[in-house]
Every structure is written in C-alpha cells, then in structure tokens.
Amino acid sequence: MTVVLVGALLVLAALLAFVFFVLAPPRVRVAASRRTAPGVEQVSQLTRVTERTVNAIESVSRGRRGFFDKEDLVLAGVVMEPPSFILVTFAGGTVLALVGALLGFGTLWSIPLAIGFALLAPLVAKVVLAIRTGARRAKFADQLDDTLQLIAGNLRAGYGIVQALDAVARDAEAPTSEEFARAVNQTRIGRDLNDALEDTAARMGSDDFMWTAQAISINRQTGGNLAEVLAQVGATIRERNQIRRQVRALSAEGRLSAIVLICLPIAVSLALLVVQPGYLAVFVESIIGVLALIIAVLLGVVGSLWMLAVVRVKF
C-alpha cells in the first residue's frame, strides 16, 4: 500500500511538472537587472512559479468553456480569474487527497479515499460558488426597495434616468452598486438601457427587478411620472420582501433538519474510518459490498435532493 501511495504522489508530481514545463507558454530569458527598475522590490520565486502555472492553465483553457466560467465567478463576487481559481481548487484537491490517504493509511480505503477527497475539491468549489451567488442575489433583492426609493428621489431632483442609475452605482452598497455600474457602463458604450436592465434582472434572478425594468421601458415609450411609478413599485416590493422573510423564518427548522440529515451519514462514516478503519472494509472486499455502497450513496443523494426540494419554498 505504501508503494502505491508513493507511486500516486510521483504521478501527481509528474503532472505538475508537465503543466509547468510543457504547457506553460515559453518566455524569452532576460537578465534580472534589465527587468527590474532601481529601487523596485523583486518578485519572489514562488510568485513567479504561481504566475507561470496560471499562464499555463490559461493557455490550455483559452477558448473553451470549463467547469469554472468567468461569469460564474463574477456572479459569486469572486475577484479572481478562472485560471487562478482553478489553480487554487487544484491545490485544495491535492491537500484533500493527502488527507484522505492519511485517514485510510494501512487499509484498503487509502487510495479510494485519496481519489474521492481529491474529486471533492471541484465539487466543493462549485457548491461554494452557488452559495455565494445565492447570497449575492438575495442581498440584491433585499436592497431593491431602497434602491428604487433612491432612484425615485434622484428623478424628483431633476436627474435623467441614466444619471439616476449612475448615482445608485456610486452611492448604493454591493452588489447593487456593482450591477448598476455594469448596466450604466453598457449604456455608455451603446447598448440599449432596457436591454441592460433586463440583463441585470436575469443575472440576479430577480422577478421584481424584471418588472421594474419593464416599467421603466413602458414609461420611456408612453411618458408619465416615472418617480411615482418607481415609488409605488418599491412599496410593493417591500411588502413582498416582508412576506418572503416570514416564510423563510417559518421554514428554517425544516432546512436545518435537512442539512443535519444530509451530513450525518458522512460524518459517521468518517468517524468510523478514524476510530475503527476495518469496520467498513467489508464494503470494498466483495462485489456485494461495493454494490451496497453504491446503492446507499445513490439513495442518500436522492433523499437529500428530495428533502431540499420539500423545504425550498418558492415565493
């Protein structure tokens, strides 16, 4: 088992060397004295290695839609480029693989745990991005009524609609300021305002803001007091948000129970691997045990999805 583990580590080292020396774009060698201005602090070797690895990942993934897209990172509020995020995920997968190998060291579970823990890294990263995206969208929805009041106040002060949106981009909190700045910048380079606002509503998954964008579009075509319209829409959205918070509070116990029931089998299995590793060895020593393990995992996934669907109240 030790030989197999050492072999797996050597394969991992060979893969890193391949990425670093083969896939990375070639560089022209220039003397360090010519690259660095007098008095400027030189970059460390670790930083140069990291940048070279990121460049290698970028050269491989350029023009392809990968597991982590730029839009996914932006929606989650992650200020990183996809190659850098992939490198961080790969490093996390390597650490998790070592942890899994140590947990099952000396048993038949060593290699399966190392592989399973390594595969957890991209899945965990994807889940984290989804959670951050959901939290960002929820925060945008909570800020929407105040945002509409701010727009209405700017319109009453004599601002045009684009100027009012620009004021929101400067004065509001994130993520509202970030999304409105994006919409305003798109209008400045020639995109229609209605399209930019509807795109923002689609990105944030906000039906309320989609109605707001449609109200602004209709008002631009027919005329009228847009400030009063937005004030009324803001009041309606405020009432909807209050009801949404009440529904979320009432369903909090069910969501917590679902999370506990999902995590409990995983936690118990890991505890048994640490306390008594041979207790679960029967699942990998025979084909019946492997089939039972696969069926148990599938049933756990189906049950988890069902519980999450039950406690998720759409309003």
Strand percentage: under 5%
Characterize the overall form.
elongated
Going by CATH, the architecture of the domain at 136-244 would be Up-down Bundle
Helix content, binned percent: over 70%
Question: What's the order of the H and E elements?
Answer: HHHHHHHHHHHHHH
The secondary structure category is: mainly alpha
Membrane topology: Multi-pass membrane protein
Keywords: Cell membrane, Membrane, Transmembrane, Transmembrane helix
Protein name: Type II secretion system protein GspF domain-containing protein
Pfam families: T2SSF (PF00482)
Observed structural traits:
315 residues; mainly alpha; Receptor-associated Protein; 14 helices; 79% helix; T2SS_GspF_dom
Helices and strands in order:
Blueprint: H1 2-23, H2 32-35, H3 45-61, H4 70-75, H5 82-103, H6 110-156, H7 161-171, H8 176-188, H9 193-204, H10 207-222, H11 226-250, H12 252-275, H13 282-285, H14 287-311
Protein name: Type II secretion system protein GspF domain-containing protein
Keywords: Cell membrane, Membrane, Transmembrane, Transmembrane helix
Subcellular location: Cell membrane
